[in-house]
Write a structure and sequence with these properties.
This protein is mostly helical. It has twelve helices and no strands.
Length: about 240
Amino acid sequence: MSLVQFGVLAAFGAGVLSFLSPCVFPLVPGYLSYLAGTSAQEAESTSTNRWRVSGHALCFVLGFALIFTLLGAAASLLGSALRVYQQVLARLAGLLVVLFGIALTGLVPLPFLSGEHRIQVKPGTSAWWRSGLIGMAFGAGWSACSGPILGSILVLIAISATLLQGIVFLLAYALGLGLPFLLVGVLIDRVGPFMRGIRRYTGPISFIGGVILILVGMLIFTGRLDQLANDFLLWYVSR
């Protein structure tokens, strides 16, 4: 497994973590039903409504995947332009990732990171293109739970990734976040009990994710992250 492959898997896992965050997970069924112009109860009642919700979920996912891909490209281009300041950028990046981790744990209030910043979309008639636009608005917004995770990925891309890698990593992140959305859309008439059962664990999952971000940020700040990644790669190849 190469470092790029490991990065893709890590980005995918970060997308799944964003989906399981307390700011996203509990709202998913109602959000998808709203996109399809129906209630959650109606969506769960017939297969016709279920497949309509699935179609809107796909458009929604494609919308935020496009925005995330553009963000990944922009972060890598910005990092390339400032490559001469690589050491300073790495230190700042480490501090930012630590702050993102603290915000994700919720242990210390950080209003400038923990607030919600979203593009408001007025209610309207259900339409495929509208679901795509709402997905783009979702991707362009900032959530107190998923925002720090996305911000950390963008910071890591800015200090170490090429343009192609930045695009691939954010596509992997979008896939990790989007696949569960699609699964909920397809199984919306059956997934209710499962989601109610796992909802109680979303807080601890986000806390663990925050702790991991803090550790990663400290490794970036001290310059140890690349060394550990190379050591892991050598260990994996030599097994």
